[in-house]
Specification:
With 171 residues, the protein is mainly alpha-helical. The chain has a domain of 80 residues: Rna Polymerase Sigma Factor, Chain: A, CATH 1.10.1740.10. It is built from seven helices and two strands. Helix 1 packs across helix 2, helix 5 packs across helix 7 and helix 6 crosses helix 7. 13% of the residues are buried.
């Protein structure tokens, strides 16, 4: 693929497109914006492959995707509104958003923290470290002084616990 093989890049694109879409979409918020960002991301990846250090491909691609998405959102937020009205922009955890969005994100975070209080301590620690603090399996294992496989198993069991206990009540 580094030599410019179009077929290899097409296979690469098809393999990693869903992963990158899921990475970008929460930041971009719309499918149209996500698709636009995806094109820029794959161009950047293609042109940056010669400098790739062969360590953590998905992490490297996700970093490119997140940076491109944040740049896109910031650029879009700087453009004046078509109707001439300017809404106040809030900055929450690394992304720009409107007041309504900031409110819902705050409510969601508060709800998540309330729910986490009900999770058994050993699961809560690993869920918080992995999902909220963005730590890798290795980092969590080092912090807890256990093997990486132990963390993988704890995460698996924690996810199972959450699936069983956090089901929405059907009304």
């Amino acid at each position: 693929m580094l030599s410019g093989n179009e077929q290899a890049f097409r296979i690469f694109y098809e393999k990693y497109r869903p992963y990158l879409f899921r990475t970008i979409h929460p930041i971009a918020k719309t499918s149209e914006d996500t698709e636009e960002i995806l094109q820029d991301v794959f161009l950047k990846i293609f042109h940056s492959l010669p400098e790739y250090q062969h360590q953590g491909l998905k992490t490297w691609m996700a970093r490119i995707a997140v940076n491109k998405a944040i740049d896109f959102v910031r650029k879009k937020q700087r453009k004046p509104k078509e109707d001439g009205s300017e809404k106040e922009i809030y900055f929450i955890q690394g992304s720009l958003c409107q007041p309504e969005q900031a409110f819902f994100e705050k409510e969601t975070r508060q709800d998540l923290h309330r729910k986490l209080e009900g999770v058994p301590q050993n699961y809560r620690e690993v869920l918080t470290a992995f999902y909220l603090e963005d730590k890798s399996h290795r980092e969590i294992a080092e912090n807890q002084g256990v093997q990486e496989k132990t963390i993988e198993m704890k995460l698996y069991r924690a996810r199972q616990w959450v699936k069983e206990h956090w089901k929405e009540d059907a009304k």
